[in-house]
Automatic annotation (TrEMBL):
Pathway(s) served: Lipid metabolism; butanoate metabolism
Catalytic activity: a short-chain (3S)-3-hydroxyacyl-CoA = a short-chain (2E)-enoyl-CoA + H2O
Entry-linked CDD domains: crotonase-like
Origin species: Clostridium thailandense
Protein name (Swiss-Prot/TrEMBL): short-chain-enoyl-CoA hydratase
Gene Ontology molecular function, alphabetical: 3-hydroxyacyl-CoA dehydratase activity
Pfam family, one: ECH_1
EC nos: 4.2.1.150
Length: 259
């Protein structure tokens, strides 16, 4: 698949999407968002891909939505741009595969928001995070007002969003915005190792775990527990449940078929 602003490669069971507009610090214009949309469709459709990594080329993960494209938008166009970004990020968030953000550098505005639509965030020690939109006269537009408080709590999210303050990877770890901070040169190796560990588990179980967690975070606990009971039951209709448990009993390596 050929793209202008991103690259998409497969390494075994892993799909790697790299934002590749380094001269603009990988800023998200609508063309890049549409390319991501197509790449996410392709990742979703590819049954061999069991985990996905999103990263950026150069010194930025993503330095935000493209300010030069947004500058002259009117109300309707601004809303449409926000709807496009949110549609693409929700597609990523709802994809039935684990998504890991390998945050190599600046993750600002739409970049921080892209990382938050991923399931797991691993940051390079060089990464920097923030929602600087209020300094540009706008609100976060690709989910920042919704996902940041869910991740780091309301007070911390409000402080970051109201001030536009940029924080380093250490602070992002302290407030729970990222799972781990690693040395820059180790970032991709660590993230690929994590992706491969996840890809070695039963894929349908991982997918159902993701759905149960995502749904459960948005509803009351009784509804969430009822949903967990549903997906737990569904697992027993899969070949991989039989294989996982039989391999355990027979003390042999398991071989999952994603079925
Ligand atoms: N949009 C468009 N272009 C951008 C950009 C963005 N978000 N971020 C960086 N660039 C461009 C710069 O204009 C510059 O282009 P030129 O070389 O043509 O001048 C190039 O990328 C390199 O940037 P800098 O020279 O500024 O690099 P730096 O190392 O000095 O600074 C930075 C890096 C601190 C990240 C700085 O570029 C910056 O502050 N960028 C903007 C960050 C920002 O405000 N992001 C939020 C955008 S709004 C948003 O995302 C809304 C939403 O929620 C959807």
């Amino acid at each position: 698949m050929e793209f202008k602003n991103i690259t998409f490669v497969k390494e075994g069971k892993i799909g790697i999407v790299t934002l590749n507009r380094p001269k603009a610090l990988n800023a998200l214009n609508s063309e890049t968002l549409r390319e991501l949309d197509s790449a996410f469709d392709a990742l979703h459709a590819d049954k061999e891909i069991l985990a996905v990594i999103i990263t950026g080329e150069g010194k930025a993960f993503v330095a935000g939505a493209d300010i030069s494209e947004m500058k002259d938008l009117n109300t309707i166009e601004g809303r449409e741009f926000g709807i496009l970004g949110n549609k693409v990020f929700r597609k990523l968030e709802n994809m039935g595969k684990p998504i890991i953000a390998a945050i190599n550098g600046f993750a600002l505005g739409g970049g921080c928001e892209l990382s938050m639509a991923c399931d797991i965030r691993i940051a390079s020690a060089k990464a920097k995070f923030g929602q600087p939109e209020s300094g540009l006269g706008i609100t976060p537009g690709f989910g920042g007002t919704q996902r940041l408080p869910r991740l780091v709590g309301e007070g911390m999210a409000k402080e970051l969003i109201f001030t536009g303050k940029i924080v380093d990877a250490k602070e992002a770890l302290r407030i729970g915005l990222v799972n781990r901070v690693v040395e820059p040169e180790q970032l991709m190796d660590e993230v690929k190792a994590l992706a491969n560990t996840i890809a070695a588990q039963a894929p349908i179980a991982v997918k159902l775990c993701k759905t149960a967690i995502n749904r459960g975070m948005q509803c009351d606990i009784d509804t969430g527990i009822a949903y967990e009971a549903e997906v737990f039951g569904q697992c027993f209709s899969t070949d991989d449940q039989k294989e996982g448990m039989t391999a355990f009993i027979e003390k042999r390596d398991k071989s999952f078929k994603n079925s």
